[in-house]
Amino acid sequence: MDEADQKNSESLEKKLEQAEKEKNEYLLGWQRAKADFINYKKEELKRLEEIAKYGLEDLVGELVTVMDNFDLGLAALEKSGPVEKGIYMIRSQIADILKKRGLEKIEVAAGDPFNPGTAEAITEIESDRPPGSIVEIIEPGYRLNGKMLRAARVKISKKQVKQVES
Known about the structure:
By secondary structure, the chain is of the alpha+beta class.
């Protein structure tokens, strides 16, 4: 092999090494881009799931208000006499539809200790219950898919002031 062939061979080897190096860089870049794209798709799916889960939050909130007013109407009807079974069925259907969409009622009861994470104190009143306990539920609270939609609105007992006898 003469000197020209050897230089040509060395030049080809350098070019081959350079090509291998570039190939590896391009391959790594492509693999990173593919991984980034897969992560992007996962994040987008998660975001779309969140939109689907909470996208109806405003509508469900408005329907909860309608349901509260429906309950007030039912209470007024019950005071004036027996109420048709169909009215209760409509109320139940509305509640079932909302429950299928992820609505759950926050369970609070009179006598429970006040929890600001689930209830909003509207007022404090004197009562025979321990201070800081729920006396009356004004409006029920709701969660939508585990997220607080509306806190229960309650009256809580306050510390009784002792009367000083004169």
